[in-house]
Specification:
- The complex is a heterodimer of chains A (195) and B (377).
- Chain A has helices spanning 5-12, 29-38, 49-57, 94-104, 118-127, 151-160, 182-185; strands spanning 19-23, 41-46, 61-64, 79-85, 105-113, 164-172, 175-176, 188-194.
- Chain A is of the alpha/beta class.
- Chain A has one domain (5-114, 150-194): 3-Layer(aba) Sandwich (Rossmann fold), CATH 3.40.50.150.
- Chain A has an eight-stranded mixed beta sheet with strand order 3-2-1-4-5-8-6-7, with helices on both faces.
- In chain A, strand 1 (19-23), helix 2 and strand 2 (41-46) form a beta-alpha-beta unit.
- Chain A is globular and about 50 Å long.
- Chain B is of the alpha/beta class and 377 residues long.
- Chain B has two domains: 16-185 and 295-376, Alpha/Beta hydrolase fold, catalytic domain (Rossmann fold), CATH 3.40.50; 189-287, Rna Polymerase Sigma Factor, Chain: A, CATH 1.10.1740.110.
- Chain B contains nine helices and eight strands.
- In chain B, strands 1-2-4-3-5-6-7-8 form an eight-stranded mixed beta sheet, sandwiched between helices.
- Classes of the chains: A alpha/beta (195), B alpha/beta (377).
- Chain B: Substrate binds at residues 226, 356.
- Chain B: One of its GO terms (molecular function) is homoserine O-acetyltransferase activity.
- Chain B: It is found in: Cytoplasm.
- Chain B: Residues 51-359 form the AB hydrolase-1 domain.
Chain lengths: 195, 377
């Protein structure tokens, strides 16, 4: 089993035996790997019923729910880690989602596709069209990504809120991107945050 | 560790009955000096007693979860869930299903003989609660030598008992499966039950519950109660699909009050066949127990406190066409479980059959329950 690259980064940085909430957990791929390889006590939240059924059928604790409404019921600091992968840009209120994550998780992983990636910029600059790339494969009228953001946007967003960055990873495909040009060169970003 | 029970242990098997010594003190303040319980078991209890699964039945259900009903001859009421190769499998599990307190299939209820008077209790039977039912089941399990349950599983009122089990005996329940259920009865739930009870009590043959010696019981009233309740178990779309406005074995309307429509004929049949297998007073007592059910109220008004510190794993399932115990009710339980930190799974499944979906062919339900139970093992 090989995890999606952004999930692999998260899996590599969760401490052994942690309590983890995976929001938008899909069919539970990351959860299963955190449980099996990290001995983590993992819970999941997922919107799609088919995915929830598959996750429950593989023995995971997953509730069907909406990131925007259902996080309110978890107590403060209920988890060592809250994980939000590839979901922030789909939220109606990303700022409220992030503050809920920071309330219920001591640490928070957020991953998102970078709208500042050079292919996205090129597509817009030269084609004059909304970009369709491997990381953003869906046309403008079908996409769930209603709040597209760049890595620099996210940095500014968390800086304004006084959120502390404990780690950051940038990816182009499965390859790691380092250095200051991440906002141009990276397709995906993963941040580890805390209040 | 428990000794492995002998295969010929008379406590185990189909059509079992036991009289347990009381007194059992009830939530209403009264007590029962002894309790008779009718139950069935399937499969073999492991040497370490770790494979026991308790199944809780719904309002008019019974202990014959996977065996033929003695009166109707119909197969068990949950053979889709329980049986060889099914999510709850006698090849792997030791399965217990008991008729609930207050019912009429052999467990103590209003039709039972009051040992103090030698005649049926009728309305002198104390009003009971779902927690009382669960306490009686716990006494049965003590008698069977089962301390710890791998799982407690139920739909509808069965799911309410599962919640009571998890709240009342958390240390005895490793996993809880709650299907198409709720943590309390809503005003609408109570309202429908009250219609049913009033239909029974309005029947002159009810005689204040003292009909056991008469030729005729309140069959007409009970049939009406069942007809009204049966509508709540189905969905509007399901009824339309099944019957529409089709006429029953006739070419045109009769301009009379016969069952012109197929749906009328169907409901009448449901009502009539129900009175052959169910006691009217039991219907009053069990619907009352359900109406009194409010798990949060039993825990200081906060549902999460019912599950505080619980080590039980929970799995909840609701159905999108169930308007009797709609998804919002399951979601409220899930939120309470999240607040209390319990391990919970929940999914709303799509099925056209309304509340009855939990009894019918919804393959996704079996996939979820099977996976959940296997992960617990």
């Amino acid at each position: 089993m090989s995890l999606r690259p952004d999930l692999a980064i998260i899996a590599d940085h969760v401490d052994q035996g942690s309590r983890v909430l995976d929001i938008g957990c899909g069919d539970g791929e990351l959860m299963a790997s955190l449980r099996d390889l990290r001995g983590a006590d993992v819970r999941g939240v997922e919107l799609d019923a088919r995915n929830v059924s598959s996750a429950v059928a593989r023995g995971l604790s997953v509730v069907q729910g909406d990131v925007e409404t259902d996080l309110a019921y978890y107590p403060d600091k209920a988890f060592d880690y809250a994980i939000l992968s590839q979901t922030l840009q789909t939220a109606r209120s990303p700022d409220r989602v992030l503050s809920e994550l920071l309330r219920i998780g001591a640490r928070v992983f957020v991953s998102f596709p970078n709208f500042g990636y050079w292919r996205v910029r090129a597509s817009f600059l030269f084609g004059g069209r909304m970009p369709v790339t491997p990381a953003l494969p869906v046309s403008w009228y079908e996409t769930e990504n209603i709040h597209q953001l760049t890595i620099d946007d996210f940095r500014a967003f968390i800086a304004e809120r006084g959120v502390i960055v404990e780690g950051e990873w940038f990816l182009s495909g499965a390859r790691s991107v380092t250095g200051g040009a991440a906002n141009l060169r990276a397709e995906h970003a993963v941040f580890l945050l805390r209040k | 560790m428990l000794a492995a029970p002998a295969l010929d242990d008379r406590r185990f098997g189909l059509n079992r009955r036991v009289t347990l010594p009381g007194p059992l003190t009830l939530d209403g303040g009264a007590s029962l000096s002894q309790i008779e319980i009718a139950y069935e078991t399937y499969g073999t209890l492991d040497a370490d007693g770790a494979n026991a699964v308790l199944i809780c039945h719904a309002l008019t259900g019974d202990q014959h979860v996977a065996s033929a009903h003695p009166r109707t001859g119909k197969p068990g009421w949950w053979t889709r869930m329980v049986g060889e190769g099914k999510p709850i499998d006698p090849a792997r599990h030791f399965i217990v299903c008991a008729n609930v307190l207050g019912s009429c299939m052999g467990t103590s209820g209003p039709a039972s003989i009051d040992p103090a008077t030698g005649v049926p209790f009728a309305m002198r039977f104390p009003v009971i609660t779902l927690r009382d039912m669960v306490r009686a089941q716990a006494l049965l399990l003590d008698h069977l030598g089962i301390w710890n349950l791998a799982a407690v599983v139920g739909g509808s009122m069965g799911g309410m008992q599962v919640l009571e089990w998890a709240a009342t005996y958390p240390a005895r329940v490793r996993s809880a499966v709650v299907i198409a259920s709720a943590a309390r009865h809503s005003a609408q739930n109570i309202a429908f039950h009250e219609v049913g009870r009033q239909a029974v009590m309005a029947d002159p043959n009810w005689r204040g519950g003292q009909y056991y010696e008469s030729k005729e019981g309140p069959s007409a009233g009970l049939a009406v109660a069942r007809m009204a309740a049966h509508i709540t178990y189905l969905s509007e779309a399901g009824l339309t699909d099944k019957f529409g406005r089709r006429l029953q074995a006739r070419e045109s309307k009769t301009f009379g009050f016969d069952a012109d429509f197929q749906v009328e004929s169907y409901l009448r049949h449901q009502g009539l066949s129900f009175v052959d297998r169910f006691d009217a007073n039991s219907y009053l007592y069990i619907t009352r127990a359900m109406d009194y059910f409010d798990l949060a109220e039993e825990h200081g008004g906060r549902l999460a406190d019912a599950f505080r510190g619980s080590k039980t794993r929970f799995c909840l399932v609701s159905f999108d066409s169930d308007w009797l115990y709609p998804t919002a009710e399951s979601r409220a339980i899930v939120h309470a479980l999240n607040a209390s930190g319990a391990a919970a799974s929940f999914v709303e499944l799509s099925a056209p059959f309304g509340h009855d979906s939990f009894l019918l062919d919804v393959p996704e339900l079996f996939r979820v329950v099977d996976g959940f139970l296997r992960a617990a093992a």
